[in-house]
Amino acid sequence: MNARPPGLEHDSATAATRAWVERAIIGLNLCPFAKAVYLKDQVRFVVSEARSAGALLDDLEAELRSLSHVAAEAVDTTLLIHPHVLNDFLDYNDFLDVADAAVERLGLAGVIQVASFHPDYQFAGTRPDDVTNFTNRSPYPILHLLREASVDSAVAAFPDAELIYQRNTDTMRRLGVVGWVALGLPQPPSFGSRPPAPGS
Fold this sequence. Notes:
- The chain is α+β, with helices and mostly antiparallel strands and 200 residues long.
- It has one domain (9-191).
- Helix content is 45%, strand content 11%.
- It has six helices and four strands.
- The chain has helices spanning 6-26, 34-39, 53-69, 89-105, 148-157, 164-182; strands at residues 43-47, 77-81, 112-117, 142-147.
- The chain has a four-stranded mixed beta sheet with strand order 1-2-4-3, with helices on both faces.
- Helix 3 packs across helix 4 (89-105).
């Protein structure tokens, strides 16, 4: 069987990620700041073809430079989706130090930060099946590039921003894994397969 054209792979990964943003991040209000930039089409979705951590680092640096040189009104934030590399969460978690070092190396510390989302995301001190991990579980591994100024402005405008994490934890515990799956969101291994990696 012929492999699907790369354009279809990109479309599939982007569509799954958009659905997750709409149903989970915005739909469950896990990030109260996301809706405004999403509706203004200020979120850039990029699908990396990287098959190695080194190639992903190249893509990350390119996107960091791009975001730093474009007006926030055009692109406020970037989701760098990488379906083919760092699918193991521990490897992904280790790469976050590499990502932070890249921000420093490019002179963007205090300007851009990298947030993390992964299909198997696990907060320290939790079990893999703890539903609270799902606040950061995405269809594919993602490096989320955020402008520090936008984060600061959003936090300043949102009352009790420090309570967001606790509110999200409460939301996930009320919803439960079954409720999460019922929304068509990325499934944990025990509930079946998540969306296949593009080209698989």
